[in-house]
Specification:
With 216 residues, the chain is α+β, with helices and mostly antiparallel strands. It contains three helices and eleven strands. It has a six-stranded antiparallel β-sheet with strand order 7-6-5-4-10-11, with no helix packed on it. Strands 1-2-3-9-8 form a five-stranded antiparallel β-sheet, with no helix packed on it.
Length: 216
């Protein structure tokens, strides 16, 4: 019985893996708005629980979903250090009339952030159900705006906070103890690389060929 030579098998493996890696975006990056999240961080404080999910989407964008156990504003921020000063913050919520809002802001100090001149965050969905608020949004990894931190290959701390009422933007939106920060910096521009769909089948086939060769 003829068997495929070892060199030919290695060529087949190389071709398969190369084609899989070259088509990375087709199976590792979702379309924006699809709600596919490869990453999750969960937080809690004495008065709140909060979660943030995110994943890459489109060509150079990130999509995030933040959820908090409240009906006021919720927000996340990206920071170079473990403090609120110099933090890129996005704040969102659903008001009592059912209107959703999302605001791109910048916190220069440990005070209420100011609204950015250019709004670079895009609201995808907003829901307030059973005392919990969930917001989905997208933004470019690098917006080119000085009031937005670049996230393309630069790790940042992730801050989160919640307010008892809806965002007013007049300095009265204090979060109290409903806040927190990630234990370390996060590179938001990377996502876990899923196993190519055909790889298990290929490995099984290679094992079978090896068995046949030994018996031949």
């Amino acid at each position: 019985m003829k068997t495929i030579g070892f060199t030919k098998i290695m060529v087949l493996v190389a071709v398969f893996l190369s084609s899989s890696l070259l088509s990375f975006n087709s199976w590792a990056v979702n379309a924006c708005g699809s709600g596919g999240y490869a990453n999750l961080k969960e937080f809690s404080s004495s008065s709140a629980t909060f979660s943030v999910e995110w994943g890459l989407c489109g060509a150079n964008e990130i999509e995030m979903k933040m959820t908090g156990n409240g009906t006021g504003w919720i927000g996340v921020g990206f920071s170079e250090d473990a403090s609120m000063s110099s933090t890129d913050v996005v704040i969102a919520g659903v008001d009592p009339e059912g209107n959703s809002y999302l605001v791109d802001t910048w916190a220069s100090e440990r005070t209420s952030p100011t609204i950015d001149t250019t709004q670079n965050y895009i609201l995808v969905s907003a829901n307030e159900v059973a005392g919990s608020t969930s917001i989905e949004f997208t933004r470019a990894l690098n917006t080119g705006d000085l009031d937005d931190y670049a996230l393309d290959g630069v790790a940042r701390y992730l801050l989160w906070a919640m307010g008892a009422g809806d965002y007013a933007g007049n300095g009265s939106d204090y979060h109290g103890s409903a806040r927190g920060i990630s234990s370390g910096v996060i590179d938001f521009s990377t996502s876990p690389v899923p196993l190519p769909a055909g790889l298990p089948l290929l490995l099984t086939g290679l094992g079978f060929l090896g068995l046949v060769k030994r018996k031949a």
